Amino acid sequence: MWDEDDALSHLLDPLRLRGAYVSDWRLRSGWGVQGDPEPRALLHYMLEGTGTILLPGEPPRPLGAGDLAIFPRGAAHVICEDTAATPRTIAELLPDRAPGEVGRLELGDGPAVGRMLCAGLDYTPDTEYPVYRTLPDVLVLRAAEIEAQPPMAHALAGLMAEFETRGSGTKAVLLRNFEMVFVLGLRATLMAIEPPVPMSRALAHPSIGRALIAIYEDYSRPWTVPALAEVAAMSRSSFTRTFKDIVGESPGRHLKRHRLSEARRLLGTTQDPHDVIARKVGYQSAVGLHLAFREEYGAAPGAVRRAAV
Predict the structure, then answer these.
(1) What is the pLDDT of residues 259-276, one digit of tens each?
(2) 134 near 201, Cβ under 8 Å?
(3) pTM, two decimal places
(4) Structure confidence at residue 81 (pLDDT)
């Protein structure tokens, strides 16, 4: 079940990336764009010039030519020439961004100062694993780091070649290329984060990784902490302590949250009866699911289903 040499694939698999909107930004002096939170991964590849990334409560992050910025969960941010720029909203500039489309933006009102290629990779947030949500709002891969990694450099070169020439199948090719850049970018940056985030620590710890994937991929099974410790090939005490240290909560709590998150998704996307959903997510009865929902969300499953309609 768990391939410790390819843990990242396990943890990204449920995202089910399904489309990419690509835009070519031609930058002029005074340019700036503000984006609201979005249910997609975002990528900004600075081809020419420089920019600044602004996130609430964090110091500015400079972006230079050849740098790649990845927003794994579509966090709200501003990207601009400098902090003096007055940004325009992405909703105003690109009100309709359907996956598979390619657009172009002229930003700013002064002389040309750069160019940036941007993409939004759509996925369904309800399918993401809880540990994916621990990723930072933005990950930046510098030009020198990209050049030092041939797969990443080749992926970006291939992406640019397809973008510039275009032809039959370009939409599909751009999606696959941006998927490749996204995954390679995560792989390159995750293990270098200091201090490490839970996702990168899980990737570096095959025992805890095995337990996480058991929780995520086989959550209908009646897991106990000793059973998960056995999957991890650790003693119960060592497993519980290490899991909480890496993930930030106990194995039992993490399992419960994932089961209830999956139940919420099923309530909103299927017509399955409550007792069927309960069994699918590891509860013995609809009553057990009802009580867990009340405790976690302060609402019954039926109310969640009605709200999703």
Answers:
(1) 998 898 888 888 999 999
(2) no
(3) 0.78
(4) 94
Give the residue from 164, 190, 216 where a domain finishes.
190
136 & 281 share domain: no
Does residue 199 form part of some domain? no
Domain count, the chain: 2
Q: Cα 110 vs. chain centroid, distance in angstroms? A: 35
* 46: nearest Cα among 84, 97, 80, 77: 80
Q: Is 183 helix (H, G, I), strand (E, B) or coil?
A: helix
Are residues 232 and 172 both part of a single domain?
Answer: no
Give the domain range for residue 277. Answer: 205-308
Q: Decide: residue 96, CB within 10 A, 0-12 exposed, 13-18 middle, 19+ buried.
A: exposed
Q: What is the DSSP letter of 87?
A: P
The count of other CB atoms within 10 Å of the CB of residue 3 is 12
Same-domain pairing of 138 and 228: no
User: Is 200 a member of any domain?
Assistant: no
Pair of tokens at residue 141: 């891969």
Burial environment of residue 119 by CB neighbours within 10 A (0 to 12, 13 to 18, 19 or more) = buried
The backbone torsions φ and ψ at residue 42, rounded to the nearest 5 degrees and listed phi first, read -120, 145
